[in-house]
Design a protein that fits this description.
64% helix; 0% strand; homodimer; Four Helix Bundle (Hemerythrin (Met), subunit A); mainly alpha; 8 helices
Chain lengths: 160, 160
C-alpha cells in the first residue's frame, strides 16, 4: 500500500465509522424520540437528521462529485434554524434521504484515486490551492467527519 | 511537500483546529458555567474538561511519546462517571492541566517524522499491525479529534 492509499483509507474509514455510529443511533430512535430536543430549547433530532443530510449532500459539489440530490434542503436545514420552517419533511422521508445521500457519496468516494483526494476542493481556486495545498478533498472530508461527531454528541443527549 | 507530509499536516491541522475551538469555548466560560450540566442529568462541563484532559493525556502512551502527566485522572474522569468521585480538582487546576497536556502533545507531535505517524500505535502488536497497517498513529489521532468534536457539540448546549 502506498502512503497516499494508506492515509486515504484511514480518513475514509474514520468517515464510515462515524456514519456507522450515526446510522445505528438513528435506527434505534422512535418517531416520538425524533421530535425531542437534544437539550431544552435546542434543535430537535429530526432537524439534525435533515441538517446532516443537507451538509453531507453538499459534499457532492464541494468535492466535485456531481450535483446535490436535495438542493432544497439548504434553505430548510442550513440557512434556517429549527422551527423556522414548518412542516419539515417526514421522519421516514428524511431517513430515506439520509441513506441515499450517504450511499451516493460512498459510491463516488470509491471511484476517486488516492491522488485525486489530494487535489484541491471545488470551493477553492487553483491559485489559492497553489499557496496552500492542504486545502484538498481530504481536509474537507475530515472537517465533515468532525461535524458529524459534533452533532452525534448532541443527539445522544436527548431524553430517552 | 511529499504525500506523507501533506496528509500528516492535514490531520494535525484538524486536531489543532478542533483544540482551538475548545480552548476558545473554555476561555469564555465562568466558574458557574463550568458547574452546569450539558443537558439535564448529564455530565457537567467541569467533568468533560477533566475527561478530555485524561483522554488526551493517554495519547502520550498510546502514541509512544512518553509517560502520562496525570495518570490519576483515568480513575476520576474515564473509568467513573461524573459525580462518582467528589470533589473534583478545581476549575483553575483543570484548565492548567488541559493546557499543559495539549502543549506537551503538540511539542511531541512536531518531532515525529511523517513516516513515524504511519507506524503502528503502542496498543497494537507488530503481528496485528502487519495484518492491518491502517491501525497507526494517524488513525488514533483522527479518532481523538472526533472524540473532542463529539464533546464540544455537547458543551455548547449547556445553558448560558
Amino acid at each position: 500500500m502506498t502512503t497516499a492509499q494508506l492515509t486515504v483509507t484511514i480518513i475514509i474509514a474514520s468517515w464510515k465509522n462515524t456514519l456507522g455510529r450515526a446510522d445505528k443511533l438513528f435506527s434505534t430512535l422512535t418517531e416520538e424520540q425524533f421530535l425531542r430536543e437534544v437539550a431544552p430549547g435546542k434543535n430537535r433530532i429530526l432537524y439534525l437528521l435533515g441538517h446532516l443530510t443537507a451538509v453531507h449532500d453538499g459534499l457532492h459539489t464541494i468535492l466535485g462529485l456531481g450535483e446535490r440530490m436535495h438542493p432544497e434542503f439548504e434553505a430548510i436545514f442550513v440557512s434556517k434554524p429549527d422551527r423556522a420552517i414548518e412542516p419539515l419533511p417526514s421522519i421516514s422521508e428524511l431517513k430515506k434521504y439520509w441513506t441515499e445521500v450517504n450511499s451516493s457519496l460512498l459510491e463516488k468516494f470509491a471511484r476517486l484515486l488516492p491522488e485525486e483526494w489530494l487535489q484541491r476542493h471545488m470551493a477553492m481556486s487553483n491559485a489559492d490551492y497553489a499557496k496552500d495545498p492542504t486545502r484538498n478533498r481530504l481536509s474537507v472530508l475530515l472537517s465533515r467527519t468532525n461535524h458529524l461527531s459534533y452533532h452525534l454528541g448532541q443527539i445522544i443527549l436527548a431524553p430517552k
